[in-house]
Write a structure and sequence with these properties.
alpha/beta, Nucleoside Triphosphate Pyrophosphohydrolase, globular
């Protein structure tokens, strides 16, 4: 299977209470799952620029994404059914409040991103639906351990 390269910026968005924001995806071809905000880079776009753009489009928050905190390369099938190898760069953003606006969602996002919510670590532990990145709890623990 030929995979399309997909550079992507993802955001670990924390509210003032330390909860992490996830969006629920309800695709037509697979079970629902939850995911951090973010998406593919536009042509010529840098990862930090894409992170800021995706954050604004998906949450209404215009915040500096800060430094990259994590990089991973993963293979998956996009919502549109395209097999990709994603070069994902993660950015930590601390929101000043827990309000978001989803008016910037694309037509596809409006169709498949059916809900959003802030998760505590305990709620992630008890989650019955998959979320991505699947090691989000470990990522959050690593972030807490940093000075």
């Amino acid at each position: 299977m030929t995979r399309t390269p997909r550079p992507a910026a993802r955001i670990v968005l924390l509210d003032p209470a330390g909860r992490v924001l996830l969006f629920r995806f309800d695709p037509d071809d697979r079970p629902p799952f939850w995911c951090t905000p973010g998406g593919a880079l536009d042509p010529g776009e840098s990862y930090p620029t894409a992170a800021r753009r995706e954050l604004l489009e998906e949450t209404g928050l215009d915040l500096d994404p800060g430094p990259e905190i994590l990089r991973r390369v993963v293979d998956f099938l996009t919502i549109e059914g395209v097999p990709v190898t994603a070069d994902e760069r993660y950015f930590l953003v601390r929101a000043p409040h827990d309000r978001i606006e989803t008016h910037g969602h694309t037509a596809l996002e409006q169709r498949v991103m059916t809900r959003w919510r802030w998760f505590t670590r305990a709620e992630l532990t008890e989650a019955t639906e998959p979320y991505f990145p699947s090691d989000l709890l470990a990522i959050l623990a690593d972030l807490e351990a940093q000075p």
